[in-house]
Amino acid sequence: MQAGFAMVESGFTRAKNACNIMMKNLMDFSVGSIMWLLIGFSLMFSAGGNGFIGDLAFFAGKNADSASSLGWTFWIFQCVFAGTAATIVSGAMAGRTKFSGYLAYSAVICAVIYPISGHWAWAGLSGGSGWLGDAGFLDFAGSTVVHSCGGWLALAGAITLGARKGKYTPDGKPRAILGHNIPLAALGVFILWFGWFGFNPGSATAGVPAIGYIAVTTNLAAAAGAITAMFASWFFGRKPDVAMALNGVLAGLVAITAGCDCVTIWGSVIIGGLAGVLVYVSVVFIDSVLKIDDPVGAVSVHAVCGAFGTLALAFVHKDIGTEGYSVIGQFLTQLKGVAAMFVWAFGCGMILFNVIKYTIGLRVTEEEELRGLDISEHGNEAYSGFQIFTAQ
Amino acid sequence: MQAGFAMVESGFTRAKNACNIMMKNLMDFSVGSIMWLLIGFSLMFSAGGNGFIGDLAFFAGKNADSASSLGWTFWIFQCVFAGTAATIVSGAMAGRTKFSGYLAYSAVICAVIYPISGHWAWAGLSGGSGWLGDAGFLDFAGSTVVHSCGGWLALAGAITLGARKGKYTPDGKPRAILGHNIPLAALGVFILWFGWFGFNPGSATAGVPAIGYIAVTTNLAAAAGAITAMFASWFFGRKPDVAMALNGVLAGLVAITAGCDCVTIWGSVIIGGLAGVLVYVSVVFIDSVLKIDDPVGAVSVHAVCGAFGTLALAFVHKDIGTEGYSVIGQFLTQLKGVAAMFVWAFGCGMILFNVIKYTIGLRVTEEEELRGLDISEHGNEAYSGFQIFTAQ
Amino acid sequence: MQAGFAMVESGFTRAKNACNIMMKNLMDFSVGSIMWLLIGFSLMFSAGGNGFIGDLAFFAGKNADSASSLGWTFWIFQCVFAGTAATIVSGAMAGRTKFSGYLAYSAVICAVIYPISGHWAWAGLSGGSGWLGDAGFLDFAGSTVVHSCGGWLALAGAITLGARKGKYTPDGKPRAILGHNIPLAALGVFILWFGWFGFNPGSATAGVPAIGYIAVTTNLAAAAGAITAMFASWFFGRKPDVAMALNGVLAGLVAITAGCDCVTIWGSVIIGGLAGVLVYVSVVFIDSVLKIDDPVGAVSVHAVCGAFGTLALAFVHKDIGTEGYSVIGQFLTQLKGVAAMFVWAFGCGMILFNVIKYTIGLRVTEEEELRGLDISEHGNEAYSGFQIFTAQ
Amino acid sequence: MKLIIAYIQPERLTAVKQALYEKEVFKLSVTNALGCGQQKGYHESYRGVDYEVNLLKKVRIEIGVNDDFVKPTVDAIIAGARTGNIGDGKIFIMDLPECIRIRTGETGSEAIG
Amino acid sequence: MKLIIAYIQPERLTAVKQALYEKEVFKLSVTNALGCGQQKGYHESYRGVDYEVNLLKKVRIEIGVNDDFVKPTVDAIIAGARTGNIGDGKIFIMDLPECIRIRTGETGSEAIG
Amino acid sequence: MKLIIAYIQPERLTAVKQALYEKEVFKLSVTNALGCGQQKGYHESYRGVDYEVNLLKKVRIEIGVNDDFVKPTVDAIIAGARTGNIGDGKIFIMDLPECIRIRTGETGSEAIG
Ligand SMILES: Nc1ncnc2c1ncn2[C@@H]1O[C@H](COP(=O)(O)OP(=O)(O)O)[C@@H](O)[C@H]1O
Ligand SMILES: Nc1ncnc2c1ncn2[C@@H]1O[C@H](COP(=O)(O)OP(=O)(O)O)[C@@H](O)[C@H]1O
Ligand SMILES: Nc1ncnc2c1ncn2[C@@H]1O[C@H](COP(=O)(O)OP(=O)(O)O)[C@@H](O)[C@H]1O
User: Fold this and answer.
1) Ligand 1 centroid – CA E66 distance (Å)
2) By the CB < 8 Å criterion, does A187 face chain B?
């Protein structure tokens, strides 16, 4: 999955920061894996602790294979989820974040922030109990637990950092800063689409027939998202925008993740399709109205569509009409989860990023930003030899 | 698979159309998935209907999981095949096709054209009956059903469209229009090679030992195709051509697809090897003699090598020498299937593309073509910031 | 896996040789597959023969499925390993090797050199006996058998070829020749990382719970390698170097390969972490002290870290403390294997490359080298249309 | 001798080269440039934000010629590049006091052709 | 007429364009260049080896102007490009005897603006 | 002052820079160009179709110098670039009436070096 995110983020941003993005995606998963081993997994999945937080039973990986009947397979699978939550943030903060600050917050996210909220919803997977999961909150593969968590953190990060230089005109109109390699971004989206077949069906954690069903809903939501996002950009903008269609795929995937096992077939098309429109509206809204600079649209894709998908599943659940299922009841439970995640992730994010800002430092200097993070932070060039218009 | 095709097609064409190709490969699979759900799957795999066409038992996905014991897994697997057939066309029509026309024909291919001919050969998979399959026609994973179908449609498209501006000199000599990113194309081929291990062994649709055997024949055919295509370009041209070797891999893969389960080990080497030479000859023939402009060689790779592989399996079948197997008999059955597919797919294609031509319009204006479809159709730039020689 | 290697090698070298690298990685696997079928598999895995070499029982693939209970699946899996050993070499010899010479040595490596030393360690997998394996030598998935073998051959190749023109100043100081596409290289590393989850857990050759454990050790070693290599470049150099961090991932992966099934969880972190530092030191040492020009660091990554990982597992083995396991004893056995591999692979390599040098020729002319192998060897351009600084 | 610099539309390069060959002007140098002229650029949108492209892609041609070749060369450029639309381009003509062929060391009019 | 060639820091291009617009100089051509000047370059390292980057990225601007526009143009370039640091760049001014608009065939002062 | 423009083979750039340094010419600007000269190009093939590459990759050097530096500079370029083969390149020398250093506002001979 990191591969996909790295490609998408890098493709959607400028050439002068491409190495930096690669490095960040590499490092958040690397640092995250170690943090996950040390403490994250234990906080999230130890059966001890209470409904809000696990204990340290699996500290430093001790006996972590006993958490689930799947043993270490469960651990590695969950590790990838944790890495995903962390990596979502990097996209929203691309092009201006100090690398050392980035390392710091990646570690904190995987060690503490993600595991705690994750525990609320998913502790049941390893025989523990989390207050959200116990309340009947449905999030099969992480629309809220993983994506919204990462997305709201990303929002906090983008706000704390401020916009890239030149993103807004003096009178506050947003300027387009074009991605440097759309084929790379498209490749990343295709990789993610494929990877999602690992994520979602994999969350069934067993070779049951459900896997086929989940793959179908996942696929249809992605397809619907691509189509509606394309038409949205065609209708509201001028022409069918490739970057938007690609975001539409991701929007559909993120939105269906919560309900991929429990919505109807056409429900998945509806969720994906609405997510595709939503992502367009949300990107434009955040960019032009809120004036928050999110270079790759991470907040719209992960936070907004993740929240949307989590809520929407209540209306297209397979069990609708069967006894014991109440649309309103389920919706309110879902809403509780979505709201809790927003408060937790956005709140923690604002604190975390501000702490970093006033200690390690969160943003590079203006000169470093202009020259590009590749050279100023890493002394590397992404495309040595290629002639790149260094000013546009 | 879409990822692979998108990369190959984009890499082999010009930078100014790279976004457009990505968009097309994204959209044909997205639109195709929805069409497949609506009607395609039903036409192909419903057991009702007759030997020529299924009925609407699974219309809009209703009960589509009952088609096969694999349930929805079968559906999604077949959906990828349908998407592949549609996406093959985009390569042959790269660089000059109107995007709205493209959307239209993608939908029709996945909804009607592919499912009908597919029904002929594969209806048996879901307990139905198709006239070709009943006649003993062998096409394990789609050399004819998928690849030739897409390939002949591509041929019809390329003919209807006409050549790209500048492809032929006034006196009819072909000019080389170089691909802009060979590493991207190579990556695409590697992804496809890998994906084929999903396609072919996956068509065994169960974890039987046959999977290992199929993986071996698939791999050897691809390897042999690469080698012979390289030597063909070395021998007939000047130097070992990278683009040709990459096409050779695809040629070998397409050719072995029909017989990957039933040919001998060395039979797979022979089929792949001959396909590698064939693709060279065919590319040159179509380009220089027929003067049809197929930018990525889709017709040669998919139609010609698909037909070849379907026929050739008769001569290297494992059962040769056993009672009840007749080389000539099998060859004639295969020939029937190959011919039927050509008539159907090419015929439908000519009708379809001409209808689109005189309604929605199939080709962009000359000015749009010169400027590149990325800007004229999508208002996007694939490689913003990179300095690209805009004329050569 | 070839995809990954092709991307990494191509990304780390110059644009003018990118096609050549793709072609080499394509061809070594293609030629290697055929050689493996013809003779390599038989020499390595036939149960006849003796402890030093197999016999020709499976010549030309006859009955090769009887080697193991996995049938042809075993064959294809081992074929990928053989291809990996061959492809490692291409990186170290990038930018100056004659293509025809390359084809020749690829064939010899897959047909003879790799299978013989492989037989020593792994003949037991197919019921045969190899002297190293019988001695208790542990190399689960090929740190030594595959990676060191390829790495020492690469060393012999780089020495025989000599440095690229302009790599060293007249007074012997190394000059940096920058990679042309770091995102591509990063993508390659991510693909390899992912592919390794096929390599290592796949070597368990059955769906046992061990697979989860192996995936965890593999992942942690890679993560640790990335982190330590990054810090090494930060500490000894100026800034956190992206190329080094990517090499660190590979170093960790290569090093853990031998012991991925038998080291402790933290043992894998230690092995990976040390490998990350080692690869930094080794790259600088080979470049600046030995003055051997290895453009992508293949010798450091595969030979040095492979040897290191094979030795190191003795110290972090899970069985430490249990009866019958002696750290020193195991270390000496490992050392024997590592040393034998060095002597064999480096020795064969020096002979092979010198034979080629004085027959077919191993190096292109200076003029061809300056112009780039893409044009001089293949008549292709990797990035047609892009403006590339042709001199720096 | 004169040095002629012309900015033309990229897609006219082939036609200009053709026209120059017919006038027996075989030597030229080409670079890529971005230009602002009367042609105003165009609007695009990227992920929902409009932007103006006002530096358009142009091709810059540089040709050193002897004085009697100035007119044919200029005519050829115009013949090849003119479409009648805004953005067709511009030609600058400058004095070129000296020219040297590196291989032979020849100078002046001999060197230029 | 004069042809003004200026080498500036890439990141100052927007400011220079702005300053030129204010002086009503609307036409210009831009290319990318590498330059060595007083600015000495910097050291980087790649995979453990140090290297010196001494050809730095610059933007080259070319503007053809009528004589009375020379001073405003030069002033505008300086206003937009100067930061006071080494590497700010340089302006060359050359004679431009002739200029032709391809579309209309106009020549001289009329053609340039 | 003179402005010297030279087109050379890309692979000779390092040698030319070296030779210029020895003559104490430290300032120069480099762009990439494509050129047609006596060197005729070469034939390649792509997927079975032959094509002619007749715009070859060249490096364009621009150096502003004081008059007494013209000869050393030209000599240095020739020393570094000449191999005796067709395609070695060409040098154009033009008058340069004015030169301004942006940082300091200095003009003329002082500004150039
Ligand atoms: N005065 C000038 N100085 C520099 N470049 C110019 C000038 N005028 C035109 N150009 C170049 O010529 C190109 C074509 O100009 P164009 O839009 O046709 O304007 P016009 O019709 O005024 O010539 C421009 O994009 C620019 O690169
Ligand atoms: N004499 C010259 N000839 C050609 N280009 C020059 C010359 N002097 C400066 N330049 C160009 O101007 C750019 C900026 O020069 P700069 O470092 O500011 O030096 P200075 O302060 O001497 O002007 C250089 O990188 C180079 O491209
Ligand atoms: N008259 C000219 N005008 C513009 N550029 C020229 C001219 N002559 C040569 N060049 C440039 O110099 C390069 C080298 O020319 P070359 O092949 O050595 O020819 P010659 O031997 O005639 O100088 C050419 O590729 C071209 O870029």
Assistant:
1) 14
2) yes
Contacts 24+ apart (CB under 8 A), B350-354: B350/B156, B350/B159, B350/B160, B352/B105, B352/B108, B352/B109, B352/B113, B352/B153, B352/B156, B353/B105, B353/B156, B353/B157, B353/B160, B353/B161, B354/B160
Query: Alpha helix locations (H) across D4-107?
Result: 13-22, 70-81
Partner E contacted by A168 (CB < 8 A): no
Asked if residue C389 belongs to a domain, the reply is no
Number of domains making up chain B:
1
E7-33 burial by CB neighbour count: b if 16+ within 10 A, else e? bbbbbbbebbbebbeebebebbbbbbb
Residue E82 CB–ligand 2 contact under 6 Å: no
C-alpha closest to that of A5 among A188, A148, A269, A154: A188
Is the whole-model pTM more than 0.80? yes
Phi–psi pair at B33, nearest 5 degrees: -60, -45
Residue B192 falls inside a structural domain: yes
Closest atom of ligand 1 relative to the D7 alpha carbon: 12
Distances (CA, A) of A198 to A58, B121, C192: 26, 31, 17
Q: What is the ipTM of this complex?
A: 0.90
Structure tokens at A240: 């069918």
- With a 6 Å cutoff on the Cβ, whether E58 touches ligand 2 is yes
Domain containing C83 equals: 2-378
Enumerate the domain spans of chain F: 2-112
CATH number of F2-112: 3.30.70.120
Residue with tokens 């990343």: A188
Residue A2 in contact with residue A74, Cβ under 8 Å? no
**Separation of alpha carbons C219 and A31, rounded Å:** 11
CA angle in degrees (0–180, nearest 5) for A205-A210-A211 = 60
Which of F7, F38, F42, F91 should be mutated for ligand 3, with most atoms under 8 A from CB? F7
- Angle between helix B72-92 and A210-236 (nearest 10): 40
The encoded tokens of residue A33 equal 């894996």
User: What is the domain-level CATH number for residue B334?
Assistant: 1.10.3430.10
Smallest CA–CA distance, residue D102 to chain B, in Å, is 26
> Which ligand is closest to the CA of E34, given by its number?
2
Ligand 2 centroid, distance to E20 Cα (angstroms): 21
**Contact B359/D at CB under 8 A:** no
CA of D39 to the centre of ligand 1 (A): 8
Q: Measure the N-to-C terminal CA separation of chain F; round to a whole number of Å.
A: 11
In a domain, C193, yes or no: yes
Taking the CA of E9 as reference, the closest ligand is 2
Closest alpha carbon to C84 in C158, C138, C9, C19: C9
In a domain, A247, yes or no: yes
Task: Name every chain A residue with its beta carbon within 8 A of the beta carbon of E44.
Answer: 375, 379-380
Distances (CA, A) of D103 to A319, D30, F30, F38: 84, 21, 20, 11
Question: In this complex, which of B72, B184, B378 lies closest to A215 when CB atoms are compared?
Answer: B72
Q: Does E65 touch chain D (CB under 8 A)?
A: no
| Contact state of F14 with C391 under an 8 Å Cβ cutoff | yes
Q: pLDDT digit of tens for each residue in chain A (392 aa)? A: 667 788 888 888 888 899 999 999 999 999 999 999 999 999 999 988 888 999 999 998 888 888 888 888 889 989 999 999 999 999 999 999 999 999 999 999 999 999 999 999 999 888 888 999 999 999 999 999 999 999 999 999 999 999 998 899 888 888 888 889 999 999 999 999 988 987 787 776 555 568 889 999 999 999 999 999 999 999 988 789 999 999 999 999 999 999 999 999 999 999 999 999 999 999 999 999 999 999 999 999 999 999 999 999 999 999 988 888 899 999 999 999 999 999 999 999 999 999 999 999 999 998 888 888 988 888 888 888 787 765 54
Residues of chain D with C-beta less than 8 angstroms from the C-beta of B371: 11
Contact of F86 with F2, CB cutoff 8 Å: no
